[in-house]
Amino acid sequence: MEAMLQPIADFFGPSWIAIWTLVKIIAIIAPLMICVAYLTLAERKVIGYMQVRIGPNRVGPKGLLQPLADGVKLLFKEIIVPSGSNKGLFILGPILALAPSLAAWAVIPFDDGLVLANVNAGLLFILAITSLEVYGVIVAGWASNSKYPFLGAMRASAQMVSYEVSMGFALICVLLISASLNLSDIVTSQGAGRFADMGLGFLSWNWLPLFPMFVVYLISGIAETNRAPFDVVEGEAEVVAGHMVEYSGMTFALFFLAEYANMILVSILTSILFLGGWLSPVGFLPDGFHWLALKTAAILFIFLWARATFPRFRYDHIMRLGWKVFIPVTLVWVFVVAVWMMSPLSIWS
Amino acid sequence: MEFKTFVFYFLAVIMVLAALRVITARNPVHAALFLVLTFFNAGGIWLLLEAEFLAIVLVMVYVGAVMVLFLFVVMMLDINLDRIREGFWSYLPVGALVGILMLVEMVMVLGGSYFGLEAMPAPAAAAESYSNTRELGRVLYTDYVYPFELASLVLLVAMVAAVALTLRKRKGLKSIPPSEQVAVKREGRVELVKMQAEKED
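^ inputs. structure came back:
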């Protein structure tokens, strides 16, 4: 590969590294956008079947072209900027919402060595970048200069800041037992252990010793992406659509893209941190990217399943769950794991 | 120009301009957002200095949490700009004094013979396997564990004090504690009674 690209690299000279990185970025972002488009279709289909409906089936064979039709529709709609709004920030809001959910993909390892930036502090980077996601919602809510968006923005900032804490503690447990902040190392460390030697790799993954953290991370992930049943931010029955009320056309589509890109990000992170990333669950099958894709798809299905199953939480119940249940549980479990690691019973050496 | 120098000037120019806008922007929300931009660029410059842990923590703590709450408060306040401007001239001497002091300190650090580049040369480049996070953690939890724990205790006291100062119990509220609400069992609400069918005859 390197030798094949050498003539092209020589042609571009010192700017080659920038161009080559851009090519890699496009190779990540373009499939991601297609995944986002088809995740919206999958969501409508899955929820449709769960509610004994058929879901979209008019555009293209079996409705498979529906996301394209939706995209074209949103692209050609007029973007209406309310006259009382703060115009610059009104446009900046959706961009701020989408940018961090794309930037976080820089450190996601897809296979052994297949990563855009193999950063040592990858986990910290993810935490820092995802903590910026809340700005899109706040800026959009404030710049709209309207009541419902503002209420939605305030709910969003309180909710996202609260659940970040429990997510952070869950990540501290993962970091403790894998002794690394590098996401690739976290995956490789899950491939070793007593069960992995017996050919039952899936029992060596982090989800088993850190089971409470796995559950907390998954639920906090749903809350962090403002998905049902924690979707009071947009809660259409209460604040119509929260921060998105005043947005139309492509500006609205950006919020939509950001939400689904975030869902995929949280799912792939859960697979990497707790479900062994690209590692194969059993010894006789080879490792590979397809395992990561399968695990991510399974967790995405849980997202959709939860949306079709649970009624929306009330706002004070969300806050209670975050602060009074998850944070104490995670705090205790950090302590338990630390003591476990130092005791003779430690399974991580 | 070396690529690193270019990146430094790129980040530094944005940072200085954003910092200027923090104090010149008329709208307090704009000022807060420019402060976010300043922090973000400062994080970038720290990354260039190979202090990745500090850079990421700056973004995580200040940009991701502190500024969100700050923005939250600024958005809800009804700030009257004219009233704030009234005190400008009376505060100017104090402000100018602080500004001059800071300027003198900066000149001493950057150009003076005590702290200049000759007195304190740049540290040697770190090895390939050097991890800033690991080194900081090692020092923080071994050599400096006592001051570190003390600092965390001080923070905890401040937190408890802030909660204790603002916690008010209001009487006559009709809201129900959610912890009691989720603990409700069916038996407490619905009673199934076995009875004979009523017949009209």
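The mean pLDDT of chain B is 84. Residues 55 and 182 of chain B are 42 Å apart (CA to CA).
thumbs up if we can close this ticket
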